[in-house]
């Protein structure tokens, strides 16, 4: 029994020593952690104090700034719209119509003024014209006979073989015959003119855009538009502009048009500005005249850049301009290297940056990067970079 009690006492003492060891280790770890935290805190304070040269100073971040100056800036307006023929000419039946025999043009062809676009059957009309031509000869023969009889009667009236009344009747017969000649000639000329209008012709020189007629088709006055043409091949772009931008655009404003799907840049100019504004969209139409190009297709879409003026203004990268509930602003480094907030009005946005219409003189130190992490009144150390031009 004594031996068993001694063994139990030995194990209890060993267990107690282990518990004390664990407790000591835990205390040591806690002390080390506290020491590390205190050391880290002291290091931060020490790093902040080193640049300022005194204890208790805070860390001063470095920020990239630029002095933008004033550079030439083109005031441009980016718009998009639809390509159309500047003067579209719908061509239809001018005469009585008939059956189409031949169509002589295809969309995309250039035609001259008066050129035949389609030929209509005229077999019946040709015979009618021939009949009227013959009637002229008949009337002319009657007129010649009446004139001869009048001449003989005038020779006999002096001898008393014919009365003056008979002479007057023969003169009237002659005049009636001459009038019938003129009527026949007029009817013939009318038939010739109608036959000349059977064919469909181009009213002016230009580019054929569409064709809505085929050989064998019977067309008449109610057939509608058979061809559409662009007069002279001239094109235009119809762009919708906001009411504020509409005030900046004048007739003659230069524009560069780029059809969708191409890199082509076509020079044009505004030739008409809408005198009204749509009450629902608050937009107006600007019509930009552009010369013909194979890349331009009426009904297609295009982008345009209108040059609404030029001047000098500060130019900043987009990262320097921020926006808030009160509008656009930039951060500048002011007196004592402290951050200041400056409200600005943004002008034209180009590939080179954002022009500032108002709010900056161009001599300020504008914070380019990290502006979102700074607040007005923060002290910073500015690092100057070159102006973005």
Overview of this protein structure:
Helix 2 runs antiparallel to helix 3 (164-196). The chain has 4 helices and 23 strands. The model is unreliable at 1-5 and 41-57 (pLDDT under 50). By secondary structure, the chain is an alpha+beta fold. The strands form 5 sheets. Strands 1, 17, 18, 19, 22 and 23 form a 6-stranded mixed beta sheet that branches. Strands 2-11-14-13-12-15 form a 6-stranded antiparallel barrel. The longest helix has 51 residues, at 2-52. The chain has 5 domains: 1-56; 62-72 and 313-385, conserved putative lor/sdh protein from methanococcus maripaludis s2 fold; 78-87 and 234-308, Elongation Factor Tu (Ef-tu), domain 3, CATH 2.40.30; 88-120 and 199-233, OB fold (Dihydrolipoamide Acetyltransferase, E2P), CATH 2.40.50; 123-197, Helix Hairpins, CATH 1.10.287. The protein has helices at residues 2-52, 123-157, 164-196, 243-246, and strands at residues 62-66, 71-85, 88-91, 98-103, 110-111, 116-120, 200-201, 206-211, 218-219, 227-231, 235-242, 254-259, 266-273, 283-290, 301-313, 315-316, 322-324, 327-333, 339-343, 345-350, 353-358, 365-367, 381-385. Residues 239-308 form the CusB-like beta-barrel domain. Residues 117-200 form the YbhG-like alpha-helical hairpin domain. Pfam families: Beta-barrel_RND_2, HH_YBHG, RND-MFP_C. This is Efflux RND transporter periplasmic adaptor subunit.
Architecture blueprint of SSEs:
Layout: H1 2-52, E1 62-66, E2 71-85, E3 88-91, E4 98-103, E5 110-111, E6 116-120, H2 123-157, H3 164-196, E7 200-201, E8 206-211, E9 218-219, E10 227-231, E11 235-242, H4 243-246, E12 254-259, E13 266-273, E14 283-290, E15 301-313, E16 315-316, E17 322-324, E18 327-333, E19 339-343, E20 345-350, E21 353-358, E22 365-367, E23 381-385
Parallel strand pairs: 1-23
Antiparallel strand pairs: 1-22, 2-11, 2-15, 3-10, 4-6, 4-9, 5-8, 6-7, 8-10, 11-14, 12-13, 12-15, 13-14, 16-21, 17-18, 18-19, 18-22, 20-21
Protein name: Efflux RND transporter periplasmic adaptor subunit
GO molecular function, one term: efflux transmembrane transporter activity
Domain YbhG-like alpha-helical hairpin: 117-200
């Amino acid at each position: 029994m004594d031996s068993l009690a001694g063994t139990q006492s030995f194990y209890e003492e060993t267990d107690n020593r282990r518990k004390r060891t664990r407790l000591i280790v835990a205390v040591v770890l806690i002390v080390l952690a506290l020491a590390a935290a205190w050391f880290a805190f002291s290091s931060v304070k020490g790093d902040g104090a080193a640049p300022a040269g005194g204890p208790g100073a805070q860390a001063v971040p470095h920020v990239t700034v630029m002095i933008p100056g004033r550079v030439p800036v083109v005031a441009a307006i980016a718009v998009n719209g639809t390509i159309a023929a500047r003067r579209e000419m719908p061509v239809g039946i001018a005469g009585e119509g008939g059956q189409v025999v031949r169509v002589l043009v295809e969309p995309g062809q250039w035609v001259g003024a008066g050129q035949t676009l389609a030929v209509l059957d005229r077999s019946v009309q040709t015979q009618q014209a021939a009949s009227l031509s013959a009637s002229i000869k008949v009337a002319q023969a009657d007129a010649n006979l009446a004139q001869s009889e009048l001449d003989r009667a005038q020779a006999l009236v002096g001898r008393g073989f014919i009365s003056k009344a008979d002479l007057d009747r023969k003169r009237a017969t002659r005049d009636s015959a001459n009038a019938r000649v003129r009527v026949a000639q007029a009817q013939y000329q009318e038939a010739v003119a109608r036959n000349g209008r059977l064919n469909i012709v181009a009213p002016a020189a230009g580019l054929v855009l569409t064709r809505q007629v085929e050989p064998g088709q019977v067309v008449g006055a109610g057939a509608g538009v058979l061809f559409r043409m662009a007069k002279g091949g001239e094109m235009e772009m119809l762009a919708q502009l906001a009411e504020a931008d509409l005030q900046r655009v004048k007739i003659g404003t230069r524009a560069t048009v780029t059809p969708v799907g191409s890199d082509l840049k076509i020079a044009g100019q505004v030739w008409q500005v809408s005198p009204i504004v749509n009450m629902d969209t608050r937009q107006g139409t600007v019509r930009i005249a552009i010369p013909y190009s194979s890349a331009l297709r009426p009904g297609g879409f295009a982008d345009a850049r209108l040059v609404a003026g030029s001047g000098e203004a500060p130019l900043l990268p987009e990262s320097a301009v921020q926006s808030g509930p009160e509008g656009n602003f930039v951060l500048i480094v002011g007196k004592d290297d402290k951050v200041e907030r400056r409200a600005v009005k943004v002008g034209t946005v180009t590939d080179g940056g954002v022009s500032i219409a108002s709010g900056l003189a161009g001599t300020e130190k504008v914070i380019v990067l990290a502006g979102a992490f700074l607040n007005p009144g923060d002290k910073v150390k500015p690092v100057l970079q070159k102006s973005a031009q």
